[in-house]
Specification:
It is a single chain. The N and C termini lie far apart (67 Å). 24% of the residues lie in helices and 27% in strands. The protein is of the alpha+beta class and 312 residues long.
Length: 312
């Protein structure tokens, strides 16, 4: 017999949105988008047949579990072993601020996380041990059944690695779970904590009602794209940049605002690893534009910002 573990990464938090290190902070709450992502996940799981609902006790995961509980009628069982990896003294701080102060350590965490620990916090191995301890203690009681688990992105990657026989040295995974994504893992009884098997890649199909803006990864910090330039001819805009050193982005985020640092005019993914972007029919005005890299560990810090004047 086997059990099915249905992991749900929490919806976008205010810290994801504002690009803060959240770790085990209880101050990170679901954003408006995060609540909608949680509701989409809950709707997708309402007829899953799950018999139990576990959750990290951190606020953003519990809020996600509340939506699932309302849809399934299951009671929430919090467990501290499902908490996110402890980010120590970086907790609650802006990603860009931390990157400026400790660039080498942030780069190590983003590109070779098994080689370091978060300062005054945890490392991958320590976090993986506690989530596997949760599995070994709680899941045998549900052999032959399905359970739902509301959880966090980084510690979920350590579980997905274990379920794919991937060593921690190969993190981060190329297919991370977005906010509100569903990841299904099979469990079967075996020596130790049991045998885990990843049943498929993270699913975001249920987030389709939210459009492309409904798929968010959260923030990894780290260096952003470099040598960013922007030009305009009439309503045609051309953007060019270079990838951050030592990084292999899967896509890029384009942000634009009417004032420096803003992103109310544009905040979307290019959906491509290409280091250029072209747009036509752009309205006249002054746009403050910057680029961020999207990698398996999240979204990078920003590139240099360019004030782009678009005329007609």
């Amino acid at each position: 017999m086997t059990a099915e573990l249905i992991f749900v990464r929490h919806g976008e938090s205010t810290f994801n949105r504002d690009r803060r290190w959240q770790g085990q902070s209880q101050d990170a709450l679901l954003s408006d988008l995060g609540w909608r992502q949680a509701e989409c996940a809950a709707d997708a799981l309402k007829d899953s047949g799950a018999v139990a609902l576990f959750s990290s006790d951190l606020t953003r995961a519990m809020q996600t579990a509340v939506s699932i509980a309302a849809a399934t009628g299951l009671a929430i069982m919090p467990d501290t072993r499902l908490r996110e990896i402890d980010s120590g003294r970086w907790t609650n701080r802006l990603s860009d601020e931390v990157t400026l102060e400790e660039p080498d350590r942030v780069n190590a965490w983003n590109n070779a996380p098994a080689t370091t620990n978060l300062p005054d916090g945890e490392g991958l191995a320590q976090a993986q041990r506690r989530i596997l301890a949760f599995v070994g203690e709680r899941i045998p009681a549900y052999d032959g059944q399905s359970v739902i688990i509301a959880i966090h992105g980084a510690i979920l990657q350590t579980l997905m690695a274990a379920a794919s026989d991937i060593p921690l040295e190969q993190l981060w995974l190329k297919t991370p779970a977005a906010n509100g994504a569903i990841v299904r893992v099979g469990w079967s009884a075996a020596q130790g904590t049991g045998k885990l098997r990843l049943l498929g890649p993270p699913s975001v199909a249920h987030l389709a009602p939210l459009g492309s803006a409904g798929v968010t990864l959260g923030s990894a910090g780290g260096p952003g794209p470099v040598e960013f330039t922007a030009s305009a001819s009439g309503g045609n805009v051309a953007l060019h940049w270079k990838a951050p050193a030592g990084s292999s982005p899967t896509a890029y985020m384009i942000e634009a605002g009417s004032a420096p640092g803003g992103r109310e005019l544009a905040n979307f993914s290019t959906g491509s690893s290409a280091t250029e972007f072209f747009a036509s029919g752009v309205g006249a005005g002054v746009y403050y534009v910057r680029i961020r890299a999207v990698t398996p560990s999240g979204v990078s810090g920003p590139s240099n910002e360019v004030a782009l004047t678009v005329g007609r």
